[in-house]
Design brief:
Layout (H helix, E strand, L loop, with lengths): L5 H14 L8 H8 L6 H21 L12 H25 L3 E2 L2 E2 L1 H4 L2 H19 L6 H22 L8 H26 L4 H28 L2 H4 L5 H5 L4 H7 L4 H11 L3 H13 L3 H19 L7 H15 L3
Antiparallel strand pairs: 1-2
Length: about 325
């Protein structure tokens, strides 16, 4: 999937390690550990691939030779790809504190290996460094977009935290929350990639829509796996949503079961102490269509994401974006 941007993604990794340095040697183990938590490098890849796909489309329409599919992206693309990865990693580090998670990407979380204080400060460090790096670009647009995205991510997380055990949450509100906490950063990554490649307002909006719908599908798939996943395959602590009182799409569907006795029993189960919820909820989920319904909604957003970029000229980068949309949903289920 990352073939067309392999060289550029390697440059992002190198830049990430270069940015996360300190003159204080005691900080280095924490900073180095932080670079391992991002895992798939999905957001920087989306930025780089959107930029390459936009360039290829422009070249095809103007009969100009495009930069090779395996060529390197511009330095601005690499810088902003590094920025979005740092912002994403910062949110992960803070999430692990909120969820009391012990592993992520098959490695111990910062809070598990050190403590919550270290996690919070590392997340703050990553946010600060990302905005500093974004401000090194000549245009203020990228810095503003990333700042707005970070705000919406935090806003989405706050809404979810303040809405714990919100048992009457509806699907529309749930989607609005994940649009902020997850989809906003994937949207901005794709938007910036196309913007930095000189895309028109209409073209940039299309890539932004792709990133938005991909992010929603991705989060729905994550919420599915929190209930039906496998710790070894997913690489992070599972079952935390129920314990933390996060009411996700499968649970929203269960609470609206056509059999009111099942819905009532589910409501009672979700009011139990956190450690007792999973054992009571899972048999009820198996009686419902929650799993199938969750798959269908994720699939709807996957199709919508691919449709948003279907009008662009074929290229390896564009095919990679479509493959990522498929992979983000299918591998999760």
């Amino acid at each position: 999937m990352y073939g067309p941007i392999a060289k550029s993604l390697a440059a992002v990794d190198a830049r990430l390690h270069r940015e996360l340095q300190s003159r204080y040697e005691a900080l280095m183990p924490v900073l180095r550990h932080g670079t391992q938590l991002g895992g798939k490098r999905l957001r920087p890849a989306l930025l780089l691939l959107s930029g390459k796909a936009m360039q290829a489309d422009q070249a095809a329409r103007s009969s100009v030779q495009a930069n090779g599919d395996d060529g390197e992206s511009s330095d601005d693309h690499v810088v902003m790809a590094t920025v979005v990865e740092m912002v994403h990693t910062a949110t992960l580090v803070h999430d692990d504190v909120l969820d009391k998670a012990s592993t992520r990407r098959h490695v111990p979380t910062i809070n598990a290996r050190w403590n919550d204080d270290t996690s919070i400060l590392l997340g703050d460090y990553l946010f600060a460094q990302s905005f500093y790096l974004a401000a090194t670009l000549p245009s203020t647009l990228a810095c503003r977009l990333v700042g707005e995205a970070a705000q919406k991510v935090c806003e989405g997380e706050l809404r979810q935290v303040l809405g714990r055990d919100w048992l009457d949450i509806d699907e529309e509100t749930y989607l609005d929350i994940i649009r902020g906490k997850t989809a906003e950063l994937t949207r901005v990554a794709c938007q910036l990639g196309a913007e930095l490649s000189g895309g028109s307002e209409e073209d940039v909006a299309a890539f932004a829509m792709f990133g938005n719908d991909l992010g929603i599908a991705f989060q729905i798939a994550d919420d599915f796996l929190d209930l039906w996943g496998d710790d070894d395959n997913v690489g992070k602590t599972l079952g935390t949503d129920l314990q933390q009182g996060k009411i996700t799409l499968p649970l929203i569907r269960l609470l609206r079961h056509e059999d009111t006795s099942v819905a009532t029993e589910a409501l009672d189960a979700l009011r139990l102490p956190p450690e007792d919820r999973l054992g009571r909820v899972m048999p009820l989920l198996r009686k419902s269509d929650a799993a199938d319904y969750t798959r269908q909604v994720a699939e709807k957003y996957r199709r919508s994401a691919i449709e948003a970029i279907s009008r662009f000229k074929p290229s390896l980068a564009l095919e990679s974006l479509k493959t990522i949309a498929d992979f983000a949903v299918d591998r999760r289920f």
